[in-house]
Target: ABC transporter ATP-binding protein
Amino acid sequence: MKTYFRLLEFAKPITPFLVPYFILTILYTVFSLVNFAMLTPLMDVLFNEIPEQAPEGQLYWDDFTLSKEFIKGYFYQEFARIIEESGKMTVLAIVCGVTITASLFANIFRYVSRRMSEGLKATTVARIRAALFDKITSLHIGYFTNQHKGDLMSRATNDVFAVEASITQSITTFVKEPITLIVFFAYLFTLSFELTIFTFLIIPISGGVISYIAKKLKKHSKNAQQFSASLLSVLDETLGGMRVIKAFGSERYVKSKFDFENQEYVKSFRKMANRKELASPYSEVMGMVFVGIILFYGGSLVLDKGEEAPLTASEFITYIAFFTQVLNPAKAISNAIGNVQRGLVAGERILEVLDLEPSIQDQSKSLPLKSFDEAITFDKVSFAYGDKQVLHDISFRLEKGKTVALVGPSGGGKSTIADLIPRFYDPSGGQILIDGKDLKEYTIDSLRDYMGIVTQESILFHDTVFNNIAFGQPDASREEVIQAAKIANAHNFIMNMEDGYDTMIGERGAKLSGGQRQRLSIARAVFKNPSILILDEATSALDTVSEKLVQDAITNLMKDRTALVIAHRLSTIQNADLIIVIKEGRVVEQGTHDSLIAKGGVYKTLQELQS
Ligand SMILES: Nc1ncnc2c1ncn2[C@@H]1O[C@H](COP(=O)(O)OP(=O)(O)OP(=O)(O)O)[C@@H](O)[C@H]1O
Model:
Protein backbone atom coordinates (compact mmCIF):
# COMPACT_ATOMS: atom_id res chain seq x y z
CA MET A 1 0.00 0.00 0.00
CA LYS A 2 2.87 2.31 0.88
CA THR A 3 4.38 1.76 -2.55
CA TYR A 4 1.05 2.53 -4.19
CA PHE A 5 0.63 5.83 -2.38
CA ARG A 6 4.24 6.80 -3.00
CA LEU A 7 3.70 6.26 -6.71
CA LEU A 8 0.50 8.27 -6.54
CA GLU A 9 2.55 11.20 -5.28
CA PHE A 10 3.72 11.57 -8.87
CA ALA A 11 0.13 12.21 -9.94
CA LYS A 12 0.00 15.32 -7.76
CA PRO A 13 -1.73 17.73 -7.73
CA ILE A 14 -4.55 15.29 -8.21
CA THR A 15 -7.52 17.34 -6.89
CA PRO A 16 -7.92 19.56 -9.98
CA PHE A 17 -8.20 16.32 -11.91
CA LEU A 18 -10.41 14.35 -9.55
CA VAL A 19 -13.26 16.83 -9.11
CA PRO A 20 -14.14 17.32 -12.80
CA TYR A 21 -13.40 13.66 -13.48
CA PHE A 22 -15.81 12.67 -10.72
CA ILE A 23 -18.56 14.91 -12.10
CA LEU A 24 -18.04 13.69 -15.67
CA THR A 25 -18.18 10.10 -14.51
CA ILE A 26 -21.45 10.65 -12.67
CA LEU A 27 -22.91 12.31 -15.76
CA TYR A 28 -21.71 9.49 -17.96
CA THR A 29 -23.15 6.87 -15.63
CA VAL A 30 -26.51 8.58 -15.29
CA PHE A 31 -26.86 8.96 -19.04
CA SER A 32 -25.94 5.34 -19.66
CA LEU A 33 -28.48 4.39 -17.03
CA VAL A 34 -31.20 6.16 -18.97
CA ASN A 35 -30.72 3.73 -21.85
CA PHE A 36 -31.48 0.78 -19.67
CA ALA A 37 -34.15 2.50 -17.65
CA MET A 38 -36.05 2.96 -20.91
CA LEU A 39 -36.08 -0.80 -21.51
CA THR A 40 -39.04 -1.59 -19.25
CA PRO A 41 -41.40 1.04 -20.64
CA LEU A 42 -40.26 0.15 -24.15
CA MET A 43 -41.16 -3.46 -23.67
CA ASP A 44 -44.37 -2.64 -21.90
CA VAL A 45 -45.42 -0.41 -24.78
CA LEU A 46 -44.57 -3.08 -27.28
CA PHE A 47 -46.27 -5.85 -25.36
CA ASN A 48 -49.38 -3.89 -24.48
CA GLU A 49 -48.75 -3.73 -20.76
CA ILE A 50 -49.67 -0.08 -20.55
CA PRO A 51 -53.23 0.72 -19.54
CA GLU A 52 -55.04 2.39 -22.40
CA GLN A 53 -56.45 4.92 -19.99
CA ALA A 54 -54.16 7.32 -18.16
CA PRO A 55 -54.35 6.77 -14.37
CA GLU A 56 -56.11 9.53 -12.55
CA GLY A 57 -54.51 11.87 -10.09
CA GLN A 58 -51.05 13.18 -9.38
CA LEU A 59 -47.64 11.69 -9.23
CA TYR A 60 -47.07 9.57 -6.17
CA TRP A 61 -44.66 11.91 -4.48
CA ASP A 62 -46.18 11.38 -1.04
CA ASP A 63 -46.09 7.62 -0.93
CA PHE A 64 -42.89 6.91 -2.77
CA THR A 65 -39.72 8.76 -2.92
CA LEU A 66 -37.57 7.97 -5.92
CA SER A 67 -38.67 4.36 -5.98
CA LYS A 68 -39.42 1.93 -8.71
CA GLU A 69 -43.12 2.59 -8.42
CA PHE A 70 -42.63 6.30 -8.62
CA ILE A 71 -40.54 6.10 -11.76
CA LYS A 72 -42.84 3.55 -13.27
CA GLY A 73 -45.93 5.51 -12.27
CA TYR A 74 -44.52 8.66 -13.77
CA PHE A 75 -43.53 7.09 -17.06
CA TYR A 76 -46.75 5.17 -17.39
CA GLN A 77 -48.82 8.23 -16.69
CA GLU A 78 -46.93 10.15 -19.33
CA PHE A 79 -46.96 7.32 -21.84
CA ALA A 80 -50.65 6.67 -21.31
CA ARG A 81 -51.31 10.33 -21.97
CA ILE A 82 -49.24 10.34 -25.15
CA ILE A 83 -50.79 7.09 -26.38
CA GLU A 84 -54.18 8.62 -25.85
CA GLU A 85 -53.22 11.74 -27.76
CA SER A 86 -50.99 10.41 -30.55
CA GLY A 87 -50.87 6.59 -30.47
CA LYS A 88 -48.33 3.92 -29.55
CA MET A 89 -45.91 4.65 -32.37
CA THR A 90 -45.23 8.06 -30.88
CA VAL A 91 -44.29 6.52 -27.53
CA LEU A 92 -42.01 4.07 -29.31
CA ALA A 93 -40.39 6.94 -31.23
CA ILE A 94 -39.93 8.93 -28.01
CA VAL A 95 -38.32 5.99 -26.24
CA CYS A 96 -35.93 5.46 -29.16
CA GLY A 97 -35.14 9.17 -29.40
CA VAL A 98 -34.36 9.41 -25.70
CA THR A 99 -32.17 6.32 -25.90
CA ILE A 100 -30.14 7.74 -28.77
CA THR A 101 -29.76 11.16 -27.14
CA ALA A 102 -28.78 9.63 -23.81
CA SER A 103 -26.21 7.45 -25.49
CA LEU A 104 -24.80 10.47 -27.34
CA PHE A 105 -24.40 12.43 -24.11
CA ALA A 106 -23.04 9.45 -22.22
CA ASN A 107 -20.34 9.01 -24.85
CA ILE A 108 -19.43 12.68 -24.95
CA PHE A 109 -18.91 12.65 -21.19
CA ARG A 110 -16.99 9.43 -21.42
CA TYR A 111 -14.72 10.81 -24.14
CA VAL A 112 -13.93 13.97 -22.18
CA SER A 113 -13.23 11.98 -19.02
CA ARG A 114 -10.99 9.56 -20.94
CA ARG A 115 -9.02 12.46 -22.36
CA MET A 116 -8.52 13.77 -18.86
CA SER A 117 -7.45 10.42 -17.47
CA GLU A 118 -5.02 9.77 -20.33
CA GLY A 119 -3.53 13.22 -19.75
CA LEU A 120 -3.08 12.44 -16.07
CA LYS A 121 -1.46 9.12 -16.93
CA ALA A 122 0.96 10.68 -19.37
CA THR A 123 2.09 13.46 -17.02
CA THR A 124 2.40 11.10 -14.08
CA VAL A 125 4.57 8.71 -16.02
CA ALA A 126 6.64 11.57 -17.41
CA ARG A 127 7.26 12.73 -13.85
CA ILE A 128 8.35 9.26 -12.77
CA ARG A 129 10.72 9.08 -15.73
CA ALA A 130 12.15 12.51 -15.00
CA ALA A 131 12.69 11.62 -11.34
CA LEU A 132 14.47 8.43 -12.38
CA PHE A 133 16.68 10.29 -14.83
CA ASP A 134 17.55 12.89 -12.20
CA LYS A 135 18.42 10.20 -9.72
CA ILE A 136 20.47 8.24 -12.22
CA THR A 137 22.55 11.27 -13.11
CA SER A 138 23.13 12.00 -9.42
CA LEU A 139 24.49 8.54 -8.62
CA HIS A 140 28.23 8.17 -8.19
CA ILE A 141 30.29 6.72 -11.02
CA GLY A 142 31.03 3.47 -9.22
CA TYR A 143 27.38 2.53 -9.49
CA PHE A 144 27.40 2.20 -13.24
CA THR A 145 28.77 -1.27 -13.72
CA ASN A 146 27.49 -3.20 -16.73
CA GLN A 147 25.09 -5.19 -14.62
CA HIS A 148 23.62 -2.02 -13.16
CA LYS A 149 23.40 -0.34 -16.55
CA GLY A 150 21.09 -3.00 -18.03
CA ASP A 151 19.13 -3.09 -14.84
CA LEU A 152 18.66 0.68 -14.82
CA MET A 153 17.63 0.67 -18.45
CA SER A 154 15.05 -1.99 -17.75
CA ARG A 155 13.72 -0.10 -14.76
CA ALA A 156 13.49 3.17 -16.67
CA THR A 157 11.65 1.54 -19.58
CA ASN A 158 9.83 -1.74 -18.81
CA ASP A 159 9.02 -0.94 -15.22
CA VAL A 160 7.82 2.54 -16.05
CA PHE A 161 5.55 1.07 -18.74
CA ALA A 162 4.24 -1.48 -16.25
CA VAL A 163 3.47 1.27 -13.76
CA GLU A 164 1.77 3.27 -16.49
CA ALA A 165 -0.44 0.34 -17.44
CA SER A 166 -1.37 -0.51 -13.90
CA ILE A 167 -0.92 2.06 -11.19
CA THR A 168 -1.84 5.17 -13.13
CA GLN A 169 -4.60 3.28 -14.91
CA SER A 170 -5.95 2.22 -11.54
CA ILE A 171 -6.39 5.81 -10.37
CA THR A 172 -9.16 6.30 -12.89
CA THR A 173 -10.60 2.81 -12.45
CA PHE A 174 -10.84 3.26 -8.71
CA VAL A 175 -12.68 6.56 -9.16
CA LYS A 176 -14.92 5.68 -12.06
CA GLU A 177 -16.01 2.13 -11.50
CA PRO A 178 -17.25 2.44 -7.90
CA ILE A 179 -19.44 5.36 -9.00
CA THR A 180 -20.85 3.26 -11.82
CA LEU A 181 -21.35 0.37 -9.43
CA ILE A 182 -23.14 2.48 -6.82
CA VAL A 183 -25.45 4.15 -9.32
CA PHE A 184 -26.21 0.87 -11.09
CA PHE A 185 -26.80 -0.99 -7.87
CA ALA A 186 -29.09 1.73 -6.60
CA TYR A 187 -31.15 1.22 -9.71
CA LEU A 188 -31.06 -2.56 -9.38
CA PHE A 189 -32.40 -2.19 -5.84
CA THR A 190 -35.34 -0.20 -7.12
CA LEU A 191 -36.03 -3.01 -9.59
CA SER A 192 -35.82 -5.88 -7.14
CA PHE A 193 -34.50 -5.87 -3.62
CA GLU A 194 -34.30 -9.66 -3.25
CA LEU A 195 -32.47 -10.24 -6.51
CA THR A 196 -29.98 -7.49 -5.80
CA ILE A 197 -28.98 -8.95 -2.47
CA PHE A 198 -28.11 -12.04 -4.45
CA THR A 199 -25.85 -10.17 -6.81
CA PHE A 200 -23.87 -8.81 -3.90
CA LEU A 201 -22.47 -12.26 -3.45
CA ILE A 202 -20.69 -12.19 -6.78
CA ILE A 203 -18.42 -9.25 -6.27
CA PRO A 204 -16.60 -10.32 -3.08
CA ILE A 205 -16.33 -13.98 -4.02
CA SER A 206 -15.01 -13.62 -7.55
CA GLY A 207 -13.02 -10.53 -6.53
CA GLY A 208 -11.44 -12.48 -3.68
CA VAL A 209 -10.38 -15.34 -5.90
CA ILE A 210 -8.97 -13.03 -8.54
CA SER A 211 -6.90 -11.07 -6.07
CA TYR A 212 -5.62 -14.37 -4.66
CA ILE A 213 -4.43 -15.30 -8.16
CA ALA A 214 -2.93 -11.84 -8.58
CA LYS A 215 -0.88 -12.24 -5.44
CA LYS A 216 0.66 -15.45 -6.72
CA LEU A 217 1.29 -13.67 -9.99
CA LYS A 218 3.35 -11.04 -8.22
CA LYS A 219 6.08 -13.51 -7.38
CA HIS A 220 6.54 -14.62 -10.95
CA SER A 221 6.40 -11.19 -12.40
CA LYS A 222 9.39 -10.16 -10.28
CA ASN A 223 11.39 -12.97 -11.89
CA ALA A 224 10.33 -11.98 -15.38
CA GLN A 225 11.42 -8.41 -14.83
CA GLN A 226 14.82 -9.48 -13.55
CA PHE A 227 15.40 -11.59 -16.61
CA SER A 228 14.38 -8.78 -18.86
CA ALA A 229 17.09 -6.67 -17.19
CA SER A 230 19.70 -9.34 -17.90
CA LEU A 231 18.56 -9.44 -21.52
CA LEU A 232 19.04 -5.71 -21.84
CA SER A 233 22.48 -6.00 -20.23
CA VAL A 234 23.60 -8.54 -22.80
CA LEU A 235 22.13 -6.44 -25.60
CA ASP A 236 23.81 -3.28 -24.36
CA GLU A 237 27.16 -5.03 -24.02
CA THR A 238 26.82 -6.56 -27.47
CA LEU A 239 25.95 -3.28 -29.15
CA GLY A 240 28.82 -1.52 -27.39
CA GLY A 241 31.31 -4.27 -28.21
CA MET A 242 30.19 -5.18 -31.72
CA ARG A 243 33.59 -4.42 -33.21
CA VAL A 244 35.37 -6.78 -30.83
CA ILE A 245 32.71 -9.44 -31.17
CA LYS A 246 33.06 -9.45 -34.93
CA ALA A 247 36.83 -9.24 -34.91
CA PHE A 248 37.08 -12.23 -32.60
CA GLY A 249 34.36 -14.12 -34.47
CA SER A 250 32.47 -14.42 -31.19
CA GLU A 251 29.02 -13.95 -32.63
CA ARG A 252 28.09 -17.47 -31.70
CA TYR A 253 29.33 -17.04 -28.14
CA VAL A 254 27.34 -13.84 -27.49
CA LYS A 255 24.38 -15.35 -29.26
CA SER A 256 24.41 -18.35 -26.95
CA LYS A 257 24.60 -16.00 -23.97
CA PHE A 258 21.66 -14.06 -25.33
CA ASP A 259 19.74 -17.24 -26.15
CA PHE A 260 20.16 -18.47 -22.62
CA GLU A 261 18.80 -15.27 -21.10
CA ASN A 262 16.10 -15.18 -23.74
CA GLN A 263 14.95 -18.71 -22.93
CA GLU A 264 14.97 -17.98 -19.21
CA TYR A 265 12.85 -14.96 -19.92
CA VAL A 266 10.41 -16.98 -22.00
CA LYS A 267 10.07 -19.55 -19.22
CA SER A 268 9.49 -16.94 -16.61
CA PHE A 269 7.18 -14.92 -18.82
CA ARG A 270 5.08 -17.96 -19.67
CA LYS A 271 4.70 -18.90 -16.05
CA MET A 272 3.52 -15.38 -15.37
CA ALA A 273 1.25 -15.19 -18.42
CA ASN A 274 -0.37 -18.53 -17.67
CA ARG A 275 -1.50 -17.28 -14.32
CA LYS A 276 -2.49 -13.90 -15.60
CA GLU A 277 -4.55 -15.34 -18.41
CA LEU A 278 -6.31 -17.58 -15.94
CA ALA A 279 -7.79 -14.58 -14.17
CA SER A 280 -9.98 -13.45 -17.04
CA PRO A 281 -11.71 -16.76 -17.97
CA TYR A 282 -12.10 -17.46 -14.31
CA SER A 283 -13.97 -14.26 -13.63
CA GLU A 284 -15.98 -14.77 -16.80
CA VAL A 285 -17.11 -18.22 -15.72
CA MET A 286 -17.73 -17.09 -12.16
CA GLY A 287 -19.81 -14.24 -13.56
CA MET A 288 -21.85 -16.55 -15.76
CA VAL A 289 -22.47 -18.98 -12.89
CA PHE A 290 -23.98 -16.15 -10.91
CA VAL A 291 -25.96 -14.84 -13.85
CA GLY A 292 -27.35 -18.38 -14.17
CA ILE A 293 -28.31 -18.46 -10.50
CA ILE A 294 -29.95 -15.08 -10.81
CA LEU A 295 -31.81 -16.14 -13.92
CA PHE A 296 -33.14 -19.09 -12.04
CA TYR A 297 -34.06 -17.21 -8.91
CA GLY A 298 -35.46 -14.15 -10.74
CA GLY A 299 -37.33 -16.36 -13.20
CA SER A 300 -38.93 -18.22 -10.36
CA LEU A 301 -39.99 -14.91 -8.79
CA VAL A 302 -41.75 -14.01 -12.02
CA LEU A 303 -43.25 -17.43 -12.69
CA ASP A 304 -44.27 -18.60 -9.25
CA LYS A 305 -46.45 -15.87 -7.98
CA GLY A 306 -48.42 -14.95 -11.07
CA GLU A 307 -50.25 -11.67 -10.59
CA GLU A 308 -48.69 -11.14 -7.16
CA ALA A 309 -45.15 -11.43 -8.48
CA PRO A 310 -42.74 -8.79 -7.18
CA LEU A 311 -41.30 -8.56 -10.70
CA THR A 312 -42.99 -8.32 -14.07
CA ALA A 313 -41.45 -10.11 -17.03
CA SER A 314 -40.25 -6.89 -18.63
CA GLU A 315 -38.68 -5.76 -15.37
CA PHE A 316 -36.92 -9.04 -15.08
CA ILE A 317 -35.47 -8.76 -18.58
CA THR A 318 -34.38 -5.20 -17.81
CA TYR A 319 -32.84 -6.49 -14.63
CA ILE A 320 -30.79 -9.11 -16.42
CA ALA A 321 -29.69 -6.67 -19.13
CA PHE A 322 -28.67 -4.30 -16.39
CA PHE A 323 -26.95 -6.89 -14.36
CA THR A 324 -24.63 -7.85 -17.22
CA GLN A 325 -23.61 -4.18 -17.26
CA VAL A 326 -22.90 -4.21 -13.53
CA LEU A 327 -20.47 -7.03 -14.10
CA ASN A 328 -18.25 -4.78 -16.23
CA PRO A 329 -17.28 -2.27 -13.55
CA ALA A 330 -16.99 -5.10 -11.04
CA LYS A 331 -14.66 -6.94 -13.38
CA ALA A 332 -12.74 -3.75 -14.09
CA ILE A 333 -12.18 -3.25 -10.37
CA SER A 334 -10.98 -6.78 -9.75
CA ASN A 335 -8.77 -6.62 -12.86
CA ALA A 336 -7.34 -3.33 -11.65
CA ILE A 337 -6.56 -4.90 -8.29
CA GLY A 338 -4.66 -7.66 -10.09
CA ASN A 339 -2.88 -5.16 -12.33
CA VAL A 340 -1.94 -3.00 -9.41
CA GLN A 341 -0.29 -6.00 -7.76
CA ARG A 342 1.79 -6.46 -10.89
CA GLY A 343 2.45 -2.75 -11.21
CA LEU A 344 3.58 -2.64 -7.59
CA VAL A 345 6.44 -5.00 -8.36
CA ALA A 346 7.57 -2.62 -11.09
CA GLY A 347 6.83 0.34 -8.83
CA GLU A 348 9.00 -1.08 -6.07
CA ARG A 349 11.84 -1.50 -8.53
CA ILE A 350 11.47 2.14 -9.57
CA LEU A 351 11.32 3.34 -5.98
CA GLU A 352 14.42 1.30 -5.14
CA VAL A 353 16.33 3.43 -7.63
CA LEU A 354 14.73 6.65 -6.40
CA ASP A 355 15.68 5.71 -2.84
CA LEU A 356 19.34 5.13 -3.65
CA GLU A 357 21.47 7.57 -1.77
CA PRO A 358 24.35 8.76 -3.96
CA SER A 359 27.30 7.59 -1.90
CA ILE A 360 29.21 10.71 -2.83
CA GLN A 361 27.43 13.94 -2.10
CA ASP A 362 27.92 17.34 -0.56
CA GLN A 363 27.95 17.62 3.19
CA SER A 364 25.72 20.21 4.78
CA LYS A 365 28.76 22.35 5.65
CA SER A 366 30.45 22.05 2.23
CA LEU A 367 31.49 25.40 0.77
CA PRO A 368 32.19 26.35 -2.82
CA LEU A 369 35.83 26.27 -3.81
CA LYS A 370 36.75 29.88 -4.56
CA SER A 371 40.29 29.47 -5.84
CA PHE A 372 43.10 27.01 -6.37
CA ASP A 373 46.45 28.51 -5.39
CA GLU A 374 48.93 25.96 -4.10
CA ALA A 375 48.66 22.21 -4.53
CA ILE A 376 46.66 19.03 -4.45
CA THR A 377 48.10 16.63 -1.91
CA PHE A 378 47.51 12.91 -1.46
CA ASP A 379 48.17 12.02 2.16
CA LYS A 380 48.41 8.28 2.86
CA VAL A 381 45.44 7.55 0.64
CA SER A 382 44.04 4.06 0.38
CA PHE A 383 41.08 2.83 -1.61
CA ALA A 384 39.09 -0.36 -2.19
CA TYR A 385 36.47 -1.34 -4.77
CA GLY A 386 34.18 -3.20 -2.38
CA ASP A 387 36.46 -5.72 -0.68
CA LYS A 388 39.21 -5.37 -3.23
CA GLN A 389 41.94 -3.12 -1.86
CA VAL A 390 43.58 -1.40 -4.86
CA LEU A 391 45.46 1.58 -3.38
CA HIS A 392 47.70 1.55 -0.31
CA ASP A 393 49.25 4.50 1.41
CA ILE A 394 49.56 6.78 -1.62
CA SER A 395 51.23 10.13 -0.88
CA PHE A 396 52.37 12.77 -3.35
CA ARG A 397 52.00 16.46 -4.07
CA LEU A 398 50.75 18.06 -7.29
CA GLU A 399 51.92 21.69 -7.22
CA LYS A 400 49.96 24.36 -9.01
CA GLY A 401 51.22 24.83 -12.58
CA LYS A 402 53.22 21.60 -12.54
CA THR A 403 52.74 18.27 -14.26
CA VAL A 404 52.72 15.00 -12.39
CA ALA A 405 52.80 11.80 -14.41
CA LEU A 406 51.60 8.45 -13.15
CA VAL A 407 53.28 5.48 -14.77
CA GLY A 408 53.45 1.79 -14.05
CA PRO A 409 52.16 -1.60 -15.04
CA SER A 410 48.56 -2.06 -16.10
CA GLY A 411 46.09 -2.55 -13.28
CA GLY A 412 48.38 -0.83 -10.80
CA GLY A 413 45.75 1.74 -9.84
CA LYS A 414 46.64 4.82 -11.89
CA SER A 415 43.13 5.49 -13.19
CA THR A 416 41.77 4.95 -9.71
CA ILE A 417 44.09 7.64 -8.32
CA ALA A 418 42.92 10.02 -11.05
CA ASP A 419 39.26 9.25 -10.26
CA LEU A 420 39.74 10.30 -6.65
CA ILE A 421 40.58 13.92 -7.52
CA PRO A 422 37.17 14.90 -8.99
CA ARG A 423 35.63 12.71 -6.26
CA PHE A 424 34.23 10.06 -8.58
CA TYR A 425 35.16 7.93 -5.59
CA ASP A 426 36.21 8.86 -2.08
CA PRO A 427 39.30 7.33 -0.46
CA SER A 428 38.67 4.68 2.16
CA GLY A 429 41.68 5.85 4.16
CA GLY A 430 43.86 8.95 4.28
CA GLN A 431 43.00 12.32 2.82
CA ILE A 432 43.17 14.29 -0.39
CA LEU A 433 43.73 17.97 0.22
CA ILE A 434 43.38 20.98 -2.02
CA ASP A 435 45.33 23.98 -0.72
CA GLY A 436 45.56 22.18 2.60
CA LYS A 437 41.85 21.43 3.02
CA ASP A 438 40.09 18.12 2.51
CA LEU A 439 38.26 17.89 -0.84
CA LYS A 440 35.12 16.99 1.09
CA GLU A 441 34.98 20.47 2.58
CA TYR A 442 34.04 21.83 -0.84
CA THR A 443 30.92 21.29 -2.89
CA ILE A 444 31.41 18.70 -5.60
CA ASP A 445 30.19 20.98 -8.39
CA SER A 446 32.56 23.80 -7.50
CA LEU A 447 35.45 21.36 -7.25
CA ARG A 448 34.72 19.86 -10.64
CA ASP A 449 34.42 23.34 -12.14
CA TYR A 450 38.17 23.63 -11.68
CA MET A 451 38.85 20.36 -13.44
CA GLY A 452 38.97 19.15 -16.98
CA ILE A 453 39.14 15.49 -17.81
CA VAL A 454 40.29 13.83 -20.98
CA THR A 455 39.70 10.11 -20.74
CA GLN A 456 41.38 7.24 -22.59
CA GLU A 457 38.26 6.62 -24.52
CA SER A 458 36.95 9.80 -26.16
CA ILE A 459 33.41 10.15 -24.98
CA LEU A 460 31.29 11.98 -27.50
CA PHE A 461 27.55 12.42 -27.73
CA HIS A 462 25.07 12.14 -30.58
CA ASP A 463 24.96 15.86 -31.21
CA THR A 464 26.67 18.54 -33.29
CA VAL A 465 30.41 19.14 -33.19
CA PHE A 466 29.67 22.54 -31.64
CA ASN A 467 27.62 21.07 -28.80
CA ASN A 468 30.20 18.38 -28.17
CA ILE A 469 32.89 21.00 -27.66
CA ALA A 470 30.76 23.49 -25.75
CA PHE A 471 29.39 20.58 -23.77
CA GLY A 472 26.54 21.64 -21.50
CA GLN A 473 26.74 25.28 -22.63
CA PRO A 474 24.66 25.54 -25.81
CA ASP A 475 24.77 29.35 -25.67
CA ALA A 476 28.57 29.45 -25.82
CA SER A 477 30.06 31.88 -28.32
CA ARG A 478 31.07 30.47 -31.67
CA GLU A 479 34.45 32.23 -31.56
CA GLU A 480 35.39 30.57 -28.29
CA VAL A 481 34.45 27.14 -29.60
CA ILE A 482 36.44 27.69 -32.78
CA GLN A 483 39.38 28.97 -30.74
CA ALA A 484 39.30 25.82 -28.60
CA ALA A 485 39.09 23.62 -31.70
CA LYS A 486 42.10 25.42 -33.19
CA ILE A 487 44.18 24.88 -30.07
CA ALA A 488 43.18 21.20 -30.16
CA ASN A 489 44.19 20.86 -33.83
CA ALA A 490 40.59 20.03 -34.65
CA HIS A 491 39.48 23.11 -36.59
CA ASN A 492 40.69 21.95 -40.00
CA PHE A 493 39.02 18.60 -40.04
CA ILE A 494 35.84 20.11 -38.60
CA MET A 495 35.74 22.64 -41.44
CA ASN A 496 36.06 19.76 -43.91
CA MET A 497 32.95 18.10 -42.55
CA GLU A 498 29.69 18.59 -44.43
CA ASP A 499 28.13 21.11 -42.05
CA GLY A 500 31.27 22.25 -40.26
CA TYR A 501 30.58 22.87 -36.59
CA ASP A 502 26.93 21.96 -37.09
CA THR A 503 27.64 18.44 -38.32
CA MET A 504 25.97 15.71 -36.31
CA ILE A 505 28.74 13.36 -35.33
CA GLY A 506 26.76 10.11 -35.03
CA GLU A 507 26.26 8.01 -31.98
CA ARG A 508 29.36 8.01 -29.75
CA GLY A 509 31.19 9.83 -32.53
CA ALA A 510 30.98 6.85 -34.86
CA LYS A 511 31.52 9.01 -37.95
CA LEU A 512 34.97 10.18 -36.79
CA SER A 513 38.41 8.61 -36.78
CA GLY A 514 40.09 7.74 -33.48
CA GLY A 515 42.46 10.71 -33.67
CA GLN A 516 39.63 13.08 -34.57
CA ARG A 517 37.58 11.87 -31.62
CA GLN A 518 40.52 12.47 -29.31
CA ARG A 519 41.09 15.95 -30.64
CA LEU A 520 37.41 16.78 -30.14
CA SER A 521 37.65 15.58 -26.54
CA ILE A 522 40.72 17.74 -26.10
CA ALA A 523 38.92 20.72 -27.66
CA ARG A 524 36.15 20.19 -25.11
CA ALA A 525 38.70 20.34 -22.29
CA VAL A 526 40.36 23.43 -23.80
CA PHE A 527 36.99 25.12 -24.06
CA LYS A 528 36.26 24.49 -20.42
CA ASN A 529 39.61 26.07 -19.63
CA PRO A 530 40.13 24.28 -16.32
CA SER A 531 42.98 25.05 -13.91
CA ILE A 532 43.49 21.39 -13.15
CA LEU A 533 43.72 18.87 -15.90
CA ILE A 534 43.38 15.12 -15.56
CA LEU A 535 44.57 13.37 -18.61
CA ASP A 536 44.32 9.66 -19.17
CA GLU A 537 46.45 9.15 -22.24
CA ALA A 538 44.85 7.10 -24.94
CA THR A 539 46.40 3.67 -25.29
CA SER A 540 45.09 3.05 -28.78
CA ALA A 541 47.85 3.55 -31.29
CA LEU A 542 47.32 6.23 -33.91
CA ASP A 543 49.28 6.67 -37.12
CA THR A 544 52.26 8.99 -36.85
CA VAL A 545 50.61 12.03 -38.37
CA SER A 546 47.50 11.68 -36.27
CA GLU A 547 49.59 10.93 -33.19
CA LYS A 548 51.61 14.10 -33.70
CA LEU A 549 48.44 16.17 -34.09
CA VAL A 550 47.01 14.70 -30.90
CA GLN A 551 50.29 15.12 -29.00
CA ASP A 552 50.56 18.76 -30.06
CA ALA A 553 46.96 19.29 -29.03
CA ILE A 554 47.73 17.82 -25.62
CA THR A 555 50.84 19.99 -25.24
CA ASN A 556 48.74 23.07 -26.07
CA LEU A 557 46.09 21.97 -23.61
CA MET A 558 48.57 21.48 -20.77
CA LYS A 559 50.23 24.83 -21.21
CA ASP A 560 50.03 26.83 -17.96
CA ARG A 561 47.86 24.27 -16.24
CA THR A 562 48.23 21.93 -13.32
CA ALA A 563 48.13 18.45 -14.79
CA LEU A 564 47.92 14.88 -13.66
CA VAL A 565 48.79 12.68 -16.59
CA ILE A 566 48.37 8.93 -16.73
CA ALA A 567 51.02 7.95 -19.18
CA HIS A 568 51.11 4.76 -21.16
CA ARG A 569 53.95 5.83 -23.43
CA LEU A 570 56.84 7.06 -21.34
CA SER A 571 58.22 9.13 -24.21
CA THR A 572 55.42 11.67 -23.75
CA ILE A 573 56.09 12.52 -20.11
CA GLN A 574 59.85 12.83 -19.91
CA ASN A 575 59.52 16.52 -19.14
CA ALA A 576 57.00 16.05 -16.34
CA ASP A 577 57.95 17.82 -13.11
CA LEU A 578 57.34 14.65 -11.13
CA ILE A 579 56.99 11.06 -12.27
CA ILE A 580 55.36 8.63 -9.88
CA VAL A 581 55.68 4.92 -10.47
CA ILE A 582 52.64 2.99 -9.26
CA LYS A 583 52.75 -0.75 -8.90
CA GLU A 584 50.12 -2.93 -7.26
CA GLY A 585 48.50 0.09 -5.67
CA ARG A 586 51.64 1.51 -4.08
CA VAL A 587 54.07 4.30 -4.93
CA VAL A 588 57.29 2.45 -5.64
CA GLU A 589 59.40 5.34 -6.96
CA GLN A 590 59.06 9.03 -7.56
CA GLY A 591 61.26 11.71 -9.05
CA THR A 592 62.14 13.35 -12.35
CA HIS A 593 62.90 11.34 -15.49
CA ASP A 594 66.65 11.78 -15.08
CA SER A 595 66.72 10.91 -11.40
CA LEU A 596 64.61 7.80 -11.94
CA ILE A 597 66.78 6.61 -14.84
CA ALA A 598 69.85 7.21 -12.70
CA LYS A 599 68.26 5.20 -9.91
CA GLY A 600 67.98 2.18 -12.18
CA GLY A 601 64.71 0.87 -10.64
CA VAL A 602 61.25 -0.01 -11.98
CA TYR A 603 61.02 3.13 -14.14
CA LYS A 604 64.26 2.33 -15.88
CA THR A 605 63.08 -1.21 -16.58
CA LEU A 606 59.79 0.11 -18.00
CA GLN A 607 61.71 2.57 -20.12
CA GLU A 608 63.91 -0.17 -21.52
CA LEU A 609 60.91 -2.39 -22.23
CA GLN A 610 59.23 0.37 -24.20
CA SER A 611 62.22 1.38 -26.25
N1 LIG B 1 34.92 -0.42 -10.96
C1 LIG B 1 35.79 -1.32 -10.49
N2 LIG B 1 35.39 -2.29 -9.67
C2 LIG B 1 36.25 -3.19 -9.17
N3 LIG B 1 37.55 -3.21 -9.45
C3 LIG B 1 38.04 -2.28 -10.27
C4 LIG B 1 37.18 -1.28 -10.84
N4 LIG B 1 37.93 -0.48 -11.62
C5 LIG B 1 39.19 -0.95 -11.54
N5 LIG B 1 39.28 -2.02 -10.73
C6 LIG B 1 40.47 -2.77 -10.35
O1 LIG B 1 41.33 -1.90 -9.67
C7 LIG B 1 42.67 -2.12 -10.05
C8 LIG B 1 43.30 -0.83 -10.52
O2 LIG B 1 42.66 -0.43 -11.71
P1 LIG B 1 43.06 0.90 -12.48
O3 LIG B 1 42.15 1.01 -13.63
O4 LIG B 1 43.08 2.01 -11.52
O5 LIG B 1 44.52 0.54 -12.96
P2 LIG B 1 45.43 1.33 -14.01
O6 LIG B 1 46.76 1.37 -13.41
O7 LIG B 1 44.81 2.60 -14.38
O8 LIG B 1 45.40 0.32 -15.21
P3 LIG B 1 45.58 0.65 -16.80
O9 LIG B 1 46.96 1.18 -16.97
O10 LIG B 1 45.43 -0.70 -17.40
O11 LIG B 1 44.51 1.59 -17.16
C9 LIG B 1 42.66 -3.21 -11.09
O12 LIG B 1 43.00 -4.41 -10.46
C10 LIG B 1 41.23 -3.25 -11.56
O13 LIG B 1 40.89 -4.57 -11.86
